[in-house]
Amino acid sequence: MDYARCETLSLRGLNMGKISGIRIYHLAITWTIIGLAGSPADLCTAGERTAKWPAHIQVVLDTTEPLKFDRGGRLPLYLWQAMDPGPLGDEAAEELVKKLDERGVGLISSWDPRDREDSLARSLTIAKSQKKLGLRVNINATGCLHSFFNGDERTAHIDDEGKPFWDESFGEHKMGCPFGLDFRRPHIWEQVDYFVNVFEKAGLEVGFVFADWEIDGPIEFNEAHAGSKRCRRCRENIENIDDFEEFQRVLRKLRSYLQRDVYAEPITSNFSKALVGNYGVYPHNGYRYWYDYYEYYVDGQPYRADQQAKYRKWYHEFPETGYTFAMPVVYPWRRIFDWYDYAETDYRWFYNMLLVASNAGQNTPVEVPIVSFVHWHTIESGGSTGEAKQFSEAKYQELCGICC
C-alpha cells in the first residue's frame, strides 16, 4: 500500500468515527486487522493537523481516544493504518507506541526483503520500544513470502510436448505448476529467516506475525484444475487428477507444507510463543462462504447451494500449516448482494458475513486466537452486475456486536 497517496487509506475500511474508549470489535474470541477509513479528504486533512506523524498514523490518533478501561491480557486492535510510520528515533518510537497502546491499538512493522536494511532498522527501533514498554512486537511479514511464482519458467506448467505454459485465470498473476516450486523454497525461507535471525540475536521476542499471502503457490480454483490436467508434471503427481476433491486435497496439502516450511516454523522455532497466521487460513466446517476478488466458480467444483450462492467445499488446511492463530476474512464482497433476494438489503450482507464469522468461531479450538481480516466498505469482485446498496454502518456495528 502506498501511504503517500491519501486515497489508498480507505482500503480495508471501517469508519468508526470519534470513539470514546474505542470499542474493540472482534468475532468470537477474535481481534481484528482493519482499516480505519474516512473519505480521502478527511484522511488528508487529519494528517495535515500536525507534521509529527505520517497521515496514515495521524488519522488513527485523531479518530480514537484513550481507553477508559485497561484491556488486560487481551490482544490490541490491529489497524491497517497503524503500520510502518517511517524512520523514527528511539524517543519518537516510544512515544508513538505508547500513544497507540493507550488507545488499544498495536503498532505494526513490516519486514520487506526489497528494502532490507531500512525495513530492518525501522522495525528494530519500534520493537525495542515495544519491549521496553512490555508490549507485544507486531510484524507484517507479507513481503517475505513473495513469491513462489516469480515468472521463472521452471515454475510453469509443462504440456505434453515439453513446452511451458501458465494459468492466466488469476488476473495479472501468472500461476504455474504446483510441483515446480521446490527450488523456490530456500529463497523464500531465507527472506523470512534473515529478519527472524536478527531479531533473535537482538533479544527481541516477536509476538504477533501475520501475512497477506494470497495469489501465489498452489491454488485449486478458477482454471487451475484444467491447467493441471493439461500439465504432464501435475498428472504424474496427482493419481486421480480428474477428481476435483482429490486435486484440491493434494494442492492444499502442498500449499500448507510450503507455508509451514518457509514461514511458520522459522518463526515459531525461534519465538515459541509467537502468534503466526495468514490471510484466509482458519479452522472451518468444510465449506467456504466467500470468494476472493480474483476467484470465480467453475462448473464441476463441489458446493453447497444457498439461494444463488455456491459455497465451495474447503480443505482442512489449518492444522497442517503450523499457524498459531486463525485468520478468517469477513468482507462485504460485491457479489454477495446478488446472491440473495432479501428486501432488507442489509441482511444480505449481514447473513453472509455472520456465516463466515460463525464458521471460524464454531470450529476454532478455544486455545487458538482468531484474528480476523474485516472490512466495512463494499469490495468489488468479479461476476457482479448493477449497483449494490452499501452495508449500513449501524448494521455493520450490530454484526460486530453479535460476534463479540
How is this structure best described in words?
- There is one protein chain.
- With 404 residues, the chain is an alpha/beta fold.
- The chain has one domain.
- Strands 1, 2, 3, 13 and 14 form a five-stranded parallel sheet that branches. It has a four-stranded parallel sheet with strand order 4-5-8-9, covered by helices on one side. It has a three-stranded antiparallel sheet with strand order 10-12-11, with no helix packed on it.
- The longest helix is centred in the middle third of the chain and has 25 residues.
- The N terminus is likely disordered.
Describe this protein with a few key phrases:
404 residues; alpha/beta; five-stranded parallel sheet; four-stranded parallel sheet; 35% helix; 12% strand; globular; disordered N terminus
Give the topology, please.
Elements: E1 13-14, E2 30-36, H1 40-48, H2 55-63, E3 78-79, H3 90-102, E4 108-110, H4 116-132, E5 137-140, E6 157-158, E7 164-165, H5 185-201, E8 206-211, H6 224-230, H7 232-237, H8 244-268, E9 275-278, E10 287-288, E11 303-306, E12 309-313, H9 318-321, E13 329-330, H10 336-339, H11 345-363, E14 370-374, H12 393-403
Parallel strand pairs: 1-2, 2-3, 2-14, 4-5, 5-8, 8-9, 13-14
Antiparallel strand pairs: 6-7, 10-12, 11-12
Helix pairs in contact: 1-2, 3-4, 5-8, 11-12
